Structures are given as structure tokens and as C-alpha cells.
Amino acid sequence: MPFELPKLPYATSSLHPFMSEETFNFHYLKHHATYVDKLNALIKQTAMESLFLEQIIRQSSGAIFNNAAQVWNHTFFWHCLSPDGGNLPQGILLDAIVQNWGAFEEFKRQFTEQAINNFGSGWTWLVATKDGKLEIINTSNAATPVTQHGVKPLLTVDVWEHAYYIDHRNARPAYLDAFWNIVNWSFAEANFEHEELESLFAHLSNS
């Protein structure tokens, strides 16, 4: 069966005023949906039709990789947001953040700075390495930590212009300010504690 645009865990209007419904519908129903449609067309009647999304990303290049990775990145991003988000992470994730950066506010400052200065289109990620160390990394275009051995994404923010241009024009810092009010720390905490990446998105398999 083909991949489908994944259902959201909240209404498209529920992130207002931090992300308008207009932005959300444009981003989700147009950009994200187009990646899904293009991926399905590209893998139709090929061996990749039976693979998990992560497997396609790791085994492909060019247009197939770009569309598969953007489907994954966007799905992950939507789960990083919540109308009940914001505040602080809890438990062992907060402990790890404090251990790495000294304080949550310092982590937030450095993450924001990297996202603002991520040149062009791309993504900024909080990831955990296989030894449990936390890092902030930037990727360009469709690039994703899924391809990096021993690196597990915990949280991301989309810094393509289509994520914020309607609401903030070219003011990426204003978009980042709004982002912290809707971060779904429960999702990031679950990712930190989870052992396998694939099982997080097994429901996206088209097999």
C-alpha cells in the first residue's frame, strides 16, 4: 500500500497564535502532502515499495531520498509540537541537558542560535549519540539524522521558509521564539528513553 499523509495528534488550528492555521494548512496539506505523493510515484513498482520509510531513506539517493526524508522529517516535526507544549523537559532528559549545557536556558540559547544561523533551508535537531550524549546539529535541505549511524533524533525545528514566512515573513528569530511555546517535551523524552528508531514510525510503513 502507498504511504499516506500521517494524521496529526491535534487540530491544525490548535497551535495559534504560535503557528497560524493558514501556515499549518499550507505546510502540512501542501508541502508535506506533496512529498508523500511524489515518494509514492517514485517508488511505485520498485523494490522499495515494501520497505519501511527509514529503510528507503538509508538506501536511496536523489529524488527518492529527498522526498522520503522530507516525509519523515515533517512527520517527526509535527510530533515535536503540541498545543499543550512549552515549559521544561522532565526527568532524565532534563538531567542530560543540564549535564551537557550547564542549564536548560543555555541549551535553549545555543539551539536557537544554531537554528537562526542554519544557512538556507534545513532543520535543526537535538540528538542523542549511542553513548547517550546530547548534541545540537544542523542539516540542510532534506538531510536527516536517520542516515547517521548511532545518532537518534529527539527534537527538531523546521527552518525552511515555508514553515514561518506567512506568519513572520523573513524573521526567523521570531519564529524560533514562538517555537519554544509549543515544544512537545513528552515526545522528546520518549525518544530519549526509546531504544529503536524504526518502531517510532512503524505505522508509516507501506508494507
TrEMBL record:
InterPro entries: Mn/Fe_SOD, Mn/Fe_SOD_BS, Mn/Fe_SOD_C, Mn/Fe_SOD_N, Mn/Fe_SOD_N_sf, SOD_C_sf
Residues that, per the record, bind Mn(2+): H27, H74, D158, H162
Coiled coil segments of this chain: none
One Pfam short name: Sod_Fe_N
Superkingdom assignment: Bacteria
Molecular-function annotations in GO: superoxide dismutase activity; transition metal ion binding
Enzyme nomenclature, EC number: 1.15.1.1
Residue ranges of domain Manganese/iron superoxide dismutase N-terminal in the record: 3-82
Keywords recorded for this protein, A-Z: Iron, Metal-binding, Oxidoreductase
Ranges for domain Manganese/iron superoxide dismutase C-terminal: 90-190
Enzymatic reactions: 2 superoxide + 2 H(+) = H2O2 + O2
Entry GO terms, CC: cytoplasm
Assigned protein family: Belongs to the iron/manganese superoxide dismutase family.
Role, per record: Destroys radicals which are normally produced within the cells and which are toxic to biological systems.
Name of the protein in its database record: Superoxide dismutase
